[in-house]
Amino acid sequence: xxxxxxxxxxxxxxxxxxxxxxxxxxxxxxxxxxxxxxxxxxxxxxxxxxxxxxxxxxxxxxxxxxxxxxxxxxxxxxxxxxxxxxxxxxxxxxxxxxxxxxxxxxxxxxxxxxxxxxxxxxxxxxxxxxxxxxxxxxxxxxxxxxxxxxxxxxxxxxxxxxxxxxxxxxxxxxxxxxxxxxxxxxxxxxxxxxxxxxxxxxxxxxxxxxxxxxxxxxxxxxxxxxxxxxxxxxxxxxxxxxxxxxxxxxxxxxxxxxxxxxxxxxxxxxxxxxxxxxxxxxxxxxxxxxxxxxxxxxxxxxxxxxxxxxxxxxxxxxxxxxxxxxxxxxx
Length: 331
Fold this sequence. Notes:
The chain is an alpha/beta fold. It has 10 helices and 13 strands. A hairpin with a 2-residue loop joins strand 6 (110-116) and strand 7 (119-126).
């Protein structure tokens, strides 16, 4: 293990990271499949295990924690049984619950994945998608600003799943507060608020989200082509660094000084669920420590690939990532 790698992760452990966005419960039904239903051409899953994990923006918080940094999660849940279970899951993971806001009349999002023979067969979503009311919005913004000041935040992550916690008002207010305090901001966007993120440090859509957000139907996975089609957008939005995850093709990155694609490593892919959460977590910590764009993309690319080797939404393994970063001589 090189001294540079050890120093990087030691510095990551000193970071305070604020994660804002849509939180949820990832529920799992694990089982075996050995026959097809006589009622419809679908597999019959004989359930052997049920499990609930923190998901969405909460999975980013878990990844931040796994990296050794201190996460502060700020999101919206319902005042319901699932919401209480969410809080219990957070406490079980020793995560700070100060930033979680309960909203009456709103469902806590639950995504249930049915997994048979170690392969995901289907997903069932139970959620509320309506926007916050103005008083709820104001209370949420107040909570976020209080957390930023109280915990001396080093980087802010917007984890947007289009579930209603984030909107243009929340986004603008938080970015302005971050700029005033000199705090880096990173974004994992979805379509609805795609154009609302202006003056952010790092913007990280996946390839499909990029095409949808920019309304481009056909886009080749080549660095020069992506750069040509995103340059005006980045200038208009005042984005310092763009990073686009390209699945099996790796990660595209661009800034004022650097641009390129980090190729994906050959992996035994089991499940891509949660990989984007891992990528934004690792990239945000590296950004907060002022690594070069190419280094940020390379380390985040490694991390995303590693979690895809495991079934279900799981956080990054810090020791495994350190070994891979050292092996690839990224630093």
